[in-house]
Write the structure tokens for this entry.
Amino acid sequence: MANRLAWNLDALVYDFFAGQVDQQLYQDILKALGPTDGMIVDDLGCGTGNLTRLFSGTTTVRAIDLSPVAIAKTYYRTGPNVYLCSMDFYNMPPSLRPSPAPHRIVASRSLYHPDLPRSIGLLASHLRDDGIAVVAHAVPNVSQYMFPRMNGTKSFSPRQAVKAAARLSRLVGVDYRFFEAEEFERAGRQHFDAVNVELGGFGTHYVVRLQKGNLLSHQH
Ligand SMILES: C[S@@+](CC[C@H](N)C(=O)[O-])C[C@H]1O[C@@H](n2cnc3c(N)ncnc32)[C@H](O)[C@@H]1O
């Protein structure tokens, strides 16, 4: 309940604080996903649709979010290739999961449950057998988050500082957890065949690429 209220409030103000870091992060995520034309991509925690709308019209995107406010905003900024659903993806019984299983999953800044192996396991059980999931998550180090490294230089970002303040929402019972790169690697290896963790969004986020199957690159 605390989560839904918090994410509805977040969706109301989210776009005021979106900036260069977010745009760079979306590009880093898309690069990690690889080409998605003709594929089904599930966007878990799509928020206000800023990443969702960057997929080409030939990609079928199933965008899921807990917040009806976020879903409404995504609806108005995306095209007919995007299908929307407001639900908690942690409470998604197999019978209610979108079918068929997706080729790709993206979870950009939405896996805040304290049990990271559970979150990563959820992605693995939902993804196709030869699929790829990409998770983006802000780094736990607040100073690294507030000082993006742009053009090789670290500079203070007031936007990032305001967004960092949202971490205090943990004090009122909202699930809002951050994890070290090693935690993503460990949880990833439990459920996937290949795991790669890099920094994205000018060093402010981890971009975690999780792959089923042993080939280094898949087209379908
Ligand atoms: C920080 S926003 C990120 C939005 C977007 N993915 C982006 O990167 O710009 C996190 C979104 O994840 C959604 N979310 C968090 N936990 C969720 C859950 N258990 N089920 C569905 N959506 C969830 C929130 O409602 C919120 O809109």
Remarks:
- The pocket of S-adenosylmethionine is lined by residues 7, 11, 45-47, 50-51, 64-67, 70, 88-90, 108-110, 112 (CB under 6 Å).
- The chain has seven helices and nine strands.
- Residues 20-33 form the longest helix (14 residues).
- Strands lie at 40-44, 60-65, 82-86, 104-108, 132-138, 149-150, 153-154, 194-200, 205-211.
